[in-house]
């Protein structure tokens, strides 16, 4: 006879010993399967191997020693290309190619171009100059959440239609349009990345990475999405699916000049530089962070309105000149950076590194690209530069500008008659969302030099071209509050009416 305690051992809650052993074996098998499956669905050196796969990491590709790694600088401009920024690009990236990398090839940069206000003739000339042109949407529309909440069909329209614009209007071969960046750095999750993956884009440059928050820690290298996006998602929605071979060039922030806060864009820092030295030191110190740690690419993302402040343009110009004076620093495009990462080559052998060679470069090669500028130069009203012919686009833009100016003058007249001019005419801000503010005192103006614009890209849609400046203002929420306060003192009945 078995004791009652023995019975309890062999029969637990109605299960026999054999049944318990069977369940235990099933659980062990399941756990082994899960471990095996996990090993094949997570990124590691065993599941992700160069050249077409890279896990998110700070380690140097190819296990090269840090002193043999070329320091890459990736300058990227977002949004429209037109007369507002053309002279900046001529100065910083001269078409004669006299600013050269150590291998003797001209420096280069990347331009993520949106459709609104873009002069595609200029875009084609930048491409002929050796710059990379990326896709940045057709509409660049507001509100920002539209991009986060968008579906695959809408994202396909934005991505593919703008790529077609660059092909047809700028004459860029479709195979040269390799990268995408979402407006406002707002990803649309799998709805966006499936479009990029299915249409043979090489990389995305949208996802933000908010580390390091200092000037001495190593920086993240570009990586692939073979196993999805496994880092912290700073701006939803990040991609969850696997996209084999699709690269992510992260938006790694730069520290502001006070070394207090990260800035996704150079021009979007909370603490803006006060003078040329502040601006230059901000760029230089961020460069040294990469150069002295793991030599990951220095990501410098910005919008051209930052350059309308003379001392900031001078600072970037001086910074670029400093870069070209160093024998192990290369200013390259994003695609060139990925080419190096796929084939890590010591700096001593870069003269023979084919993706960075420039045998076909000719000074002023863009001059041979025949096209007519879409918009007239602001110093040559009525005529397309170099053509002597007023274009249909010019006349259409003239009519739009004149209509807006007349509308604004009408608003001013009405406001003068009611005593509200200070409320309506408080800011020169268009429906596109770019804001302009003037220095409030002579001393402040002297200190800021020629800083005519205060521009925060994440709050507004796009920089306003010269031919639409001075149009009727669209009001921010703060302007609406001001109107309500004025209305309260002028017509108290209005408040009670709104309250109903």
Q: What is the makeup of the main sheet?
A: 5 strands, parallel
Please mark out the parts with pLDDT under 50 across 5 or more consecutive residues, or reply none: 33-39, 381-397, 415-464, 466-478, 491-500
| Superfamily (CATH H level) name of the largest domain | Glycoside hydrolase/deacetylase
Sum up the overall morphology in one term: globular
Radius of gyration: 28 Å
- State the CATH topology of the largest domain: TIM Barrel
Record field, number of beta strands: 13
Strand content of the residues, in percent?
Answer: 5-15%
The helix/strand order is: HHEHEHEHHEHEEEEEEEHEHEHHHHHH
Helix content: 25-40%
Q: Termini distance?
A: 88 Å
Q: What structural class should be given to the helix and strand makeup?
A: alpha/beta
Number of domains: 3
Instruction: State the CATH architecture of the largest domain.
Output: Alpha-Beta Barrel
Description:
- The chain is an alpha/beta fold and 500 residues long.
- It has three domains: 4-41; 61-352, Glycoside hydrolase/deacetylase (TIM Barrel), CATH 3.20.20; 419-499, no CATH class.
- Helices cover 36% and strands 9% of the residues.
- The chain has helices spanning 4-10, 17-41, 86-92, 120-128, 145-149, 152-170, 190-198, 276-292, 310-324, 334-342, 392-418, 421-424, 442-448, 477-490, 492-499, and strands at residues 71-78, 110-113, 132-135, 179-180, 203-204, 208-209, 223-225, 243-248, 251-252, 254-255, 262-263, 298-303, 329-331.
- Helix 4 links the parallel strand 2 (110-113) and strand 3 (132-135).
- Residues 1-37 form the signal peptide.
- This is NodB homology domain-containing protein.
- Residues 375-463 are annotated as: Disordered.
